[in-house]
Amino acid sequence: MGRSYPLRIPEKVLELADSKARDERTDRATALRRLIYTGVEDYVMNLLEQERISVSRAAELLDTSLHQIHRLARDHGVDTGSTPEDHEQSTKTARKLLK
Length: 99
Description:
Blueprint: H1 11-24, H2 28-49, H3 55-62, H4 66-75, H5 84-98
Helix pairs in contact: 1-2, 2-3, 3-4, 4-5
């Protein structure tokens, strides 16, 4: 879970959040969180592309799976050196070895 943080938000950003909230039939706070998450996701993909973080660290930062990180990387045009299929195959192999 997150924590509260006092923040000044420009009026234009609040207008955008209100518009997004109406479009998505949600409240302003949820729209703002989604806008922030989109920016965080882009930043994490940029760090991954620059090889400043690993795929597993990206998954940790975005609180998602390695499979989802590979999908996001592909959507952002970031080469991770492996594919979700590669990860799935390695997971299957590891499970066989543990039996």
